[in-house]
């Protein structure tokens, strides 16, 4: 618990153990927050523009691995309320969070800090994290935070809506790939994980990272990044910032979707930089295959040889 950044960071200089080597630290480089990452209006997918929207999603998935969606159907009030409750969680007194703190990555709902394995990592990351599975809801919810009082109710509604949206986007992706629209709708999207990141203001954002560069190992991610920037995506040899758009979701292709699409869609490296002014809270909703899913390139998307061999998803997790 003492290790949580938010616990000790106030008025302290950046500890040595948080300083990234020069090649991976952000430095003083000003990264343009740009609007090159496509913003897609999902409202239009229901009308005669559907094919156009499908093409936009596919193109964004190929070029950037990322896009944002607006008019996505998750009520604005629910997005705001969830973000409020996530922030409130991290603002609560320590006593109210202590029972959720764990250094065991296998714990099903846990508050932790830095990357997945604090004990084994060389450099620590400037973030605290709360994560828990969300499916099946009746089983998982018992392990979720009991405070703030409305956490379970608000977040349950939020995850149900986020899942619906994820499935809708996966239908559009399937159509774009020429697959039946329910292709991803069963085992390949069965599990869900919510990962809430809290990045306190940092004394020297040029030297450290909130999350180091990585790809998401799941099928699809829906990120609620609130109103504070920090997410950067690697594109054409440079980092670009993803502009926070109020009430939008940032969507990115996970490793499993890249594999199944036989590289027609890309799972792209991204990272999170910190800032010295304000705390940033973000919530990543991961759509994940069931452990017994067989992951392999879909045959109809293979021209010559597939880029990947088939494997069981649980074996992927074992090696990840
Ligand atoms: C993640 C992630 C981005 C962010 O949790 O995998 O990339 O902006 N988060 O917090
Ligand atoms: Ni990520």
From TrEMBL:
Species this protein is from: Gossypium laxum
Cofactor(s) it depends on: L-ascorbate
Protein name: Fe2OG dioxygenase domain-containing protein
PANTHER family assigned: OXOGLUTARATE/IRON-DEPENDENT DIOXYGENASE
Alphabetic keyword roster: Dioxygenase, Iron, Metal-binding, Oxidoreductase
Family statement: Belongs to the iron/ascorbate-dependent oxidoreductase family.
Catalytic activity: salicylate + NADH + O2 + H(+) = 2,3-dihydroxybenzoate + NAD(+) + H2O
GO MF annotation list: dioxygenase activity; metal ion binding
Gene3D superfamilies: B-lactam Antibiotic, Isopenicillin N Synthase, Chain
Biological process, per Gene Ontology: defense response to oomycetes
Record-annotated Fe2OG dioxygenase domain positions: 190-289
Residues passing through the membrane, by range: none
Taxonomy, superkingdom: Eukaryota
């Amino acid at each position: 618990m003492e290790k949580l950044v938010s616990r000790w960071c106030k008025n302290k200089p950046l500890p040595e153990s948080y300083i990234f080597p020069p090649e991976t630290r952000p430095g003083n480089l000003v990264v343009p927050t740009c609007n090159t990452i496509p913003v897609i209006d999902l409202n239009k997918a229901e009308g005669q523009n559907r094919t156009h929207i499908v093409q936009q999603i596919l193109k964004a998935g190929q070029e950037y691995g990322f896009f944002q969606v607006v008019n996505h159907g998750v009520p604005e009030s629910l997005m705001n309320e969830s973000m409020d409750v996530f922030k409130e969680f991290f603002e609560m007194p320590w006593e109210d969070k202590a029972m959720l703190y764990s250094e065991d990555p296998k714990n099903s709902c846990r508050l932790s800090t830095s990357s997945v394995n604090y004990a084994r990592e060389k450099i620590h990351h400037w973030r605290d994290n709360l994560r828990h599975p969300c499916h099946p809801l009746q089983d998982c919810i018992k392990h979720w935070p009991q405070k703030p009082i409305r956490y379970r109710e608000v977040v349950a509604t939020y995850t149900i809506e986020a899942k619906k949206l994820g499935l809708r986007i996966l239908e559009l992706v399937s159509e774009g790939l020429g697959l039946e629209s329910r292709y991803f709708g069963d085992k390949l999207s069965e599990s869900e994980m919510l990962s809430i990141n809290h990045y306190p203001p940092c004394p020297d954002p040029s030297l450290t990272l909130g999350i180091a560069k990585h790809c998401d190992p799941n099928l699809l991610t829906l990120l609620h990044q609130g109103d504070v920037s920090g997410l950067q995506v690697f594109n054409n040899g440079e980092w670009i910032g993803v502009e926070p758009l109020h009430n939008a979701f940032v969507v990115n292709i996970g490793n499993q979707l890249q594999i199944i699409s036989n590289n027609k869609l890309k799972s792209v490296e991204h990272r999170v930089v910190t800032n010295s002014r304000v705390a940033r809270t973000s919530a990543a909703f991961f759509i994940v295959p069931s452990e017994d899913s067989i992951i392999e390139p879909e045959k109809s998307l293979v021209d010559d040889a597939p880029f990947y061999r088939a494997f069981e998803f649980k074996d992927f997790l074992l090696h990840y």
